[in-house]
Amino acid sequence: MAISFNEVSQEIEDILKSLDKQLQLSFYLSNSENCFSFHGNRVMPSASLIKLMIADYYCSNFSLADLQKQTQKISQGVGGSGVIQILDQKVLSLPDLISMMLSLSDNTAANTLIDIVGLNSLSVWIKGHYSATSLSRKFMDFSQKKDNLTDANDAAHALRRLIEFPLTKRALLKQQSTNKFELNFVESNNQKIYFYNKTG
Fold first, then answer.
1. Which of 48, 96, 102, 170 is the most buried (most CB within 10 A)?
2. Which of left, alpha, beta for 80 (phi over 0: left; psi -120 to 50: alpha)?
3. Same-domain status, 48 and 71
């Protein structure tokens, strides 16, 4: 028996309400016709989610061909997530930087993409497109007192936008091994389910 979106939403809301006093959490669920949000506008430190908005800036303002023509020398690596700091190659294309930022949550790639535009200019663009999101510092820069902030509604909006661009769609889909997330469900008549995910 099929269950409606509203029934699923109500069950999820009941579970989240029972946890709400112990956890600070937000939740967003939508399909083409419906949307359910629990504390979707609760602004929280973004950790790596703001990398979605950085990728959106590049994909919205440049064609894939334009991005492929540009390379960038990596001047300073930072710790945390990513692999660039251990690579010998220090000149990378912008699509490679975007893919590493999304699929590996690479902080050096993200900081390099911030440096290309400039923190202030990128912050203004992001605020103009994602009202609850603030890019205030580069990744792993703990000298800054302000933190990067976003909410679940903005993150979901960015994710929906990024799966419209081939470059970022591939990075978000292929960042997990195929065997880990490619599932079939009896309830869905063995239809294949695709997961688009941002690590970190």
1. 102
2. left
3. yes
